[in-house]
Amino acid sequence: MNSFAMIKHFLRVLMYYKINFIFTLGVPVGSIIYTMRGYIFHMSNQQIVQTHIGYWISYMVVLYAIMNSGPSLVILREEQFLKMFLFISGSVRSILCAKFISQFLLLSISVLILDILSCLLFGLPIIRLFIQSILLIILCSPPIFSLFLFFAALPLRQETITPLINVLIFCFIFLSVSQINHLLIFVNPIDYTFQIARFLFGVTVFHAVRLWLPITVTLFYLLIGAFAVKKMRFLPIFRN
Amino acid sequence: MKIEHLNFKYKKGDRLVFDNLSFNLVQGKIHILLGRNGGGKSTLLDVLSGLLRVDAVILNPIPKNEILYQIQGVPILSTIKGKHLAELILCASGQYKSRDLSPEMCSELFNDHREWEKITYLWDQQYGKMSPGERRWLTIMLYCMLDKSLYLFDEPTAGVDPYSGMQIARFIRRLQEKKGKTVVYATHKIQDLNGFKDYRVLVLDEGKIVVNEDGQHWLQACKKEKGPFCKRIVALWENSSSNLI
């Protein structure tokens, strides 16, 4: 599998930028400890704690996807890495596959650390929580990664993309906290992941009628990804 | 591969980069593409690679998975070692397996023990601690181990000392001599021709290929051209005291 060497490389790159790893894991851990401090070493109200953990795992899924999907490809495109490896590997699919798997592996490790910490602090059942979390990222990470691929199809420069994703993350958090409308899950992937998290963690029950919304959103996100891959640019903007 | 009537200018630029340019690549030959800085050499490589869509007639285009395109100055993580770069380039191509990688596998490319010492040293050296010339030497050596139909090299000897430049030329020459591959080698350094025996020279000037001749006849063709770039090439070549391979 020719993606394996690239997976290793992208993992090295992700581990090199340790501040991102701390940011994606540190913010959820800090927030959970602060807001749930009343429940530390108490066994009661597991559902409240689990809802909170579900929200922050949703945040991590979205943050990892936004940092390693389209915006990261824009940076690789502008550095001409994308162009170089398009020809070495012979296809863009192996680069995308390597990008997805590398972020998925690191996301899984981060979630595992978060789960272990949560179980130690709040006395939650580790195996159940870990299975629920892994199911959540398996279900939500591919469509959200696919959604953010649309950045790679846009004529955005490297200097534009970083502030843009910072603003977007804050918008997503704001929208998910304000919970204005259910239909917001079309535009807010944190909301989308959180709704699935609530279902997996047993907080809400999806009736057959309400199931259409996450399924439609999943298909919508995957469709955007497929369209973005077709329209993806390989030549850096600065040369055009 | 043949390109006919290529006209091109960038969307935001007024300058015509290619003006009814036509030429063909001869299979199994090294094509030295000479042109001034900003003259359109890299853009022409983008056209040949199929990355840049143009309205020219392109006959027998080569699919992307059969092309290897060396690009100038791609930043790579500074902490990875030479062996990691080898793994990245060779294994990402799908032509090598990680467990088979070692400095010994490059030995067929080398002529003397100094090259062997160099690869052994660079194999465990961090990429960030290599000089720009060493990085380029290692990267191009790895590229030359890949099996493709068309190789596009964009200024492969930029920032490289003359000795290493000759080694790079030998790696590239080997692609043609031993494997019969087609190579396009873009440069603005006329002395790079010294590294090759059997080649064609393409001179890109004012958006056109003004000279397209083999190694024996390119100089005469260049002398007939009136453009200042061709005149300068001729002067430089004739003044060069070491134009023997």
TrEMBL record, chain A:
Keyword vocabulary terms for this entry: Membrane, Transmembrane, Transmembrane helix
Transmembrane feature ranges: 21-41, 53-76, 96-123, 129-152, 164-187, 199-229
Signal peptide as annotated in the record: none
Origin: domain of life: Bacteria
The name this protein goes by in its record: ABC transporter permease
Species this protein is from: Sporolactobacillus shoreicorticis
Automatic annotation (TrEMBL), chain B:
Span of the signal peptide: none
Keyword Glycosyltransferase among record annotations: no
InterPro entries in UniProt: ABC_transporter-like_ATP-bd (IPR003439), P-loop_NTPase (IPR027417)
Official protein name in the record: ATP-binding cassette domain-containing protein
Pfam families for the chain: ABC_tran
Domain ABC transporter: start-end pairs: 1-231
Keywords: ATP-binding, Nucleotide-binding
One of the record's GO molecular function terms: ATP binding
Source organism per UniProt: Sporolactobacillus shoreicorticis
